[in-house]
Amino acid sequence: MKFLCVSDIVDPLVYSTSVKERYSDIDAILCAGDLSMEYQDFIVTALSKPMFFIFGNHDLKDFYLYNRKAKRPVHNRMNAMQVMDKGHGGDYISNKSIACKKLSFTLPDGKKTPLLIAGVSGSIRYNKGEDQYTEKQMFWQLLRLAPKMIWNRIRYGRCCDIFLTHASPRHIHDREDPCHKGFECFNWFIDKFKPAMLIHGHIHLYDLQAVRTTKSKETMVINCYSHLVVEYQPKFTGKKGEASGSLIDILSDR
Q1: What's the pTM?
Q2: CA-to-CA distance for 165 and 226, rounded, in angstroms?
Q3: pLDDT tens digits for range 202-236
């Protein structure tokens, strides 16, 4: 299964009239934040594939439509349901875990098991802006995901295939300035629930040699700044969907 992963900047390879031909073989789109809804609309309309998205700490003009605690623009009189009816073509997965049956894998006995994807929005709190959280606040968000992770383990044999975030885990791809520190609780999530991939943005890369992927225990942590194509296939070992590792290929030259 192939994913087009995007975050943080509009990439001319994606925002192009040839996007449909270039990415005709992808199965879904993952947006790791800090991208306008207009850009996301373009991608999902051009490719006609499922999209899953979260918000970052910038480009939050539509954040209030998805978060009841967010600040509502005074000039915008439309209610949330009216705008949601217009739709942006993607599924907002912050503080959610989805078993996506439209995207499924085949088990050794021939049965299907869905793609399991979860996510959280935002960055570390550094100036009291929207969608910024302290370590404690983010940990509580992860705790609210825990019951679904446990249910996934019982029902599907694994907790999570893809964990989509904006910020990175602490000491993995992050930086020491106040804005770009990662969350230590993401490392807790990796340890407890063992997602095959944690896909994040937020950390801008200006060096082609910069590290994009890091293995942390059983999880591949991937920085999808700008864009990446990621191919993923779990190695199933049981009838329920238990997986012993996975095949992950980063197709970064596309």
Answers
A1: 0.92
A2: 15
A3: 999 988 678 999 999 999 999 999 999 999 999 99
Task: Give me the residues paired with residue 232 across strands.
Answer: 248
**Distance of alpha carbon 250 from alpha carbon 163, whole angstroms:** 16
Which residues are 226's β-sheet partners? 7
CA dihedral (9, 20, 220, 111) positive or negative: positive
Number of neighbours of residue 69 by Cβ within 10 angstroms: 8
Euclidean distance between CA atoms 201 and 222, whole angstroms: 8
Hey, what amino acid is at 99? A
Q: How far apart (Å, rounded) are the C-alpha atoms in residues 46 and 21?
A: 10
Backbone angles phi, psi at 147, to 5 degrees: -60, -40
Q: Residue with structure tokens 């996506």?
A: 100
Q: What is the pLDDT of residues 128-178, one digit of tens each?
A: 899 999 999 999 999 999 999 999 999 999 999 999 999 999 999 999 999
CA–CA dist 48, 37 (Å, integer): 15
Q: Is-contact 211 83, C-beta < 8 A? A: no
Number of neighbours of residue 73 by Cβ within 10 angstroms: 11
Task: Give the Cα separation of 1 and 104 in Å (integer).
Answer: 9
Helix, strand, coil percent values for the chain (each to nearest 5): 20, 30, 45
By CB atoms closer than 10 A (0-12, 13-18, 19+), residue 209 is exposed
Give residue 105's identity as a one-letter amino acid code. Answer: F
Q: 45: which 2 tokens?
A: 């309309």
